[in-house]
Write a structure and sequence with these properties.
The chain is elongated, with a radius of gyration of 38 Å. By secondary structure, it is an alpha+beta fold. It has eleven helices and eight strands. It comes from Streptomyces luteolus.
Length: about 350
């Protein structure tokens, strides 16, 4: 009977104690969060409840499995398995705590600053910091788990002895990966490009949707995703429309007949932008920028608060101006000659009239 009750008491006590401690910690964090709503850290730390319970459970089982008498012949293997579980759950807990601290810091910064560019920069840095911390903790946890195996500890000395040669070989083999890794850090802390920035890459217009340590994703206007290595943005030129502020100036070009009523077009443009919600009220204008033997180029200039609004106001001006010209000034639209122009009639020939006769005969 004792062989049955002892494992049940150990396992049951571990489960009950784990659940009680997890519930108490969660309740404590909930009360602190309710008293300090200005600090989101306590609410975010509640996500650590499950890894905390796993750490506590594996630690208790590792300390008491000898007294349980369960699978006594395999206690060395069970102890090793519990040690691996403890390392993995501890790494999970550390990652959750680090993510909660970083997210809380970003939330407070975003609430205190109203500049969208600075908030996007911090958001980019926070995202990459989270990924770096996760990667480092995962690598350390895997290394510690491997060192728990006796064979790995025996091979450790020889691995360290050949670390120089292995480092050179790994550096050559992973040159591209390491280049992308350092490029990702340069993007994060060099403020070259941020999450949410509007960019033009290889003729594609889109928004930065994701930045990792090795690749970057651009979401285009038609919902496509372009994935490219982050080293592209440190080695090749690209357009960043959000750099230095989100306000933008856009242009719309019209190729019209030389008889087009430019002053009336200027008044019509003013009416269009005043009725367009996307216009920010900063500037507008029309000017003749070029001429050809058959047409002239008219440029309409408008402004907006960001890239999305500048696109909206440009297509609105283009559509309404063309419709207005078609309805009220169709002669202003460019014409294509389909037949040869008629030649002028030749000049009439003047014939000298005979002098009148005088006298008889």
């Amino acid at each position: 009977m004792e062989n049955v009750l002892r494992p049940l008491i150990v396992l049951g006590g571990t489960v009950v104690l784990t659940l009680i401690v997890g519930w108490l910690v969660d309740r404590l964090l909930r009360r602190i969060d309710a008293r300090h709503p200005e600090t989101p850290l306590w609410g975010l730390l509640r996500r650590c409840r499950l890894p905390l319970q796993l750490v506590l459970a594996t630690a208790l089982l590792g300390a008491s499995h000898d007294q349980s008498g369960l699978l006594h012949d395999h206690r060395a293997g069970i102890a090793h398995l519990l040690a691996l579980a403890l390392i993995a759950s501890s790494a999970w807990l550390v990652v959750r705590i680090a993510v909660a601290i970083v997210d809380a810091s970003y939330a407070r910064y975003a609430a205190a600053h109203r500049d969208p560019a600075r908030v996007r920069r911090v958001r980019t840095q926070v995202t990459l910091i989270q990924r770096v911390v996760t990667a480092v903790v995962a690598v350390v946890a895997v290394a510690v788990m491997l060192l728990t195996f006796p064979a790995m500890r025996t091979a450790g000395a020889s691995l360290l002895a050949s670390a120089g040669v292995l480092g050179i070989v790994a550096g050559i083999a992973a040159q591209s990966t390491l280049g992308n890794l350092f490029a990702g850090l340069q993007i994060a802390f060099g403020d070259m490009v941020r999450l949410g920035d509007t960019v033009v890459v290889d003729g594609e217009w889109g928004t930065i949707d994701e930045i990792t340590l090795t690749f970057l994703t651009v979401r285009t206007w038609d919902e496509r995703r372009i994935t490219m290595p982050v080293s592209y943005f440190t080695s090749k030129p690209f357009e960043n429309w959000s750099r230095g502020g989100s306000q933008m100036t856009g242009t719309v070009f019209f190729h019209l007949d030389h008889r087009a009523p430019v002053p009336e077009m200027r008044e019509k443009l003013h009416d269009i932008v005043r009725e367009c919600p996307a216009w920010d009220g900063r500037d507008w204008g029309i000017a003749v920028t070029d001429t050809t033997p058959s047409t002239m180029q008219v440029r309409a200039l408008v402004t907006a608060k960001d890239a999305d609004d500048i696109w909206t106001i440009r297509v609105t001006v283009r559509e309404q101006m063309i419709r207005w010209l078609t309805e009220h000034h169709p002669y202003a639209l460019p014409h294509i000659a389909t037949t040869s122009a008629p030649l002028p009639p030749p000049p009439a020939k003047h014939v000298d009239e005979p002098a009148p006769r005088t006298g008889r005969g």
